[in-house]
Amino acid sequence: MKLLIIEDEQSLLKSIVQYFNQEKFLCETAVSYEDGIRKIEDFQYDCIILDINLPGGSGLQLLKYLRQNKNKDGVIIISARDSLDDRITGLDIGADDYLTKPFHLSELNARVRALIRRKKAEGASILETGVLKVDLSSRTVVSAGQNMPLSKIEYDLLLFLMTNKNRVVSRQAIAEHIYDGPSEQVPSSDFVYSHIKNLKRKLKERGCHEMIQTIYGLGYKLTP
């Protein structure tokens, strides 16, 4: 899988490249607005990791250029700017995700992999993991031939875990993904625990025992 990291902070750029090289990604880099434009014009990427503040121009301008030219590469914005307006602007322009600095590289990795899986799933109507089948068009879940009624939050939670299967995702990442309110009002880990508990119970009732594992101190992992 091929990544483009557009980031002018050399120490962070080096850390991201080293981490993703170890994860078997092919990484290319750009350190300015113009350098980023040249790379996205010449190559396609599975995901672009994009900083907002760049020498020579804004990362948001680069994202707008990319989308206006019908480039559908996945984009995750990384930024020290954590205001709700910045998040909304980035997502409205066409970013697929937004991660605030500082962050753990393991969380960036989980978001990159989830984004790539979502992109690859576009056009497919069924997502399968073990005995679970999720119909993305009707938002229904079937386990071993039995329908599994889920609330909207439970469905979003299951889908998020499925797109990150076999990987630990933090409670904070889950909360930000499934919570509909402003980012600065994301509830505590009790919010996640309550919905995880309900989802585990429903999975168990349909024969999916221990599919969601609690990794104490870190988060949760779905294993088929």
Helix content: 40-55%
Largest beta sheet: strand ordering: 2-1-3-6-7
Q: Total helix count?
A: 8
CATH superfamily of the largest domain: Response regulator
Largest sheet: 5 strands, parallel
- CATH architecture descriptor text of the largest domain: 3-Layer(aba) Sandwich
Mean pLDDT: 85
Distance between the ends: 23 Å
Summing up helix and strand content along with how strands pair, one would put the structural category as: alpha/beta
**SSE order, as H and E?**
EHEHEEEHEHEHEEEEHEHHEE
> What is the CATH topology of the largest domain?
Rossmann fold
Q: Regarding CATH, which class of the largest domain?
A: Alpha Beta
Radius of gyration: 18 Å
Which percent band covers the strand fraction? 15-25%
Q: How many domain regions?
A: 2
**How does the overall form come out from the CA principal axes?**
elongated
How many DSSP-defined strands? 14
Task: Extract low-pLDDT stretches.
Answer: none
